[in-house]
Amino acid sequence: MTEEQLDNESNLWLADTLWRLGAVQFGDFTLGRTTVHSPIYVNLRLLVAHPTALARAAQIVLRELQTLQAMRNPQCDPFDVVCGVPFGGLMIGQAFSLASRVPLVYLHPHKDDLDSDVEGLYHPSQTALIMDDLITGGGSIIVTANRLRDEGLFVHDAVVLFDRESGGRQKLEEHGIRLVSLLTIKVLVNYLMSSGKIGEEWYRKSMTFLERQPSAPD
Q1: 19 — phi, psi (to 5°)?
Q2: What per-residue confidence (pLDDT) applies to 218?
Q3: 57, 68, 73, 178: which has the fewest C-beta neighbours closer than 10 Å?
């Protein structure tokens, strides 16, 4: 696939960029408390260490949201502030804030981790867009949304660069939050296989693992 074709497919640009940055690894990984024996690990924080790639990702997110809001049946509500989920989501949220000129807020935990303050300038009745680097089960986004709602903010949408397709989208829907993702694990693995970057063994292991996840189709 040519560079121009990658430019026209934002999700494939992200897949190719993550691969070139060494952010995609294959092996046997335990991710968090619930994801065990995953054959694939994607480290989105390597993206935030490359300013040019991070800025481009923020621009792609901005264009995607503008497209979704311009649809006859909008798939993303207007928002007044963007809230980055620490830490990966905070860096991406900050890049997006600079690209879109939308104010940034974030949660600052207390020392006892029992509560958090919402840092930044905002007003009750404003709408916040939550942003994170990736989603697995959706817990971090839900905690963030609940805290923002406690402050009188509305939360309808969340954006992630990468969706591991492990039930997070469905869990967010249960809490009244739509998910916008630039790249899914299925698209990533298919791209790596079709472009000759991985062999059939890792492709099959990844797809088998994906089929066992909560969001896999019957």
Answers
A1: -65, -45
A2: 32
A3: 73
Let me know: does 122 contact 148? Beta carbons within 8 Å: no
pLDDT in tens, 104-114: 999 988 777 66
pTM of the predicted protein model: 0.90
Dihedral-angle region of residue 196 (phi above 0 means left; psi in -120 to 50 means alpha; beta otherwise): left
Model confidence pLDDT, tens digit, residues 56-99: 999 999 999 999 999 999 999 999 999 999 888 999 999 999 99
Give bridge partners of residue 31 from the DSSP assignment. 35
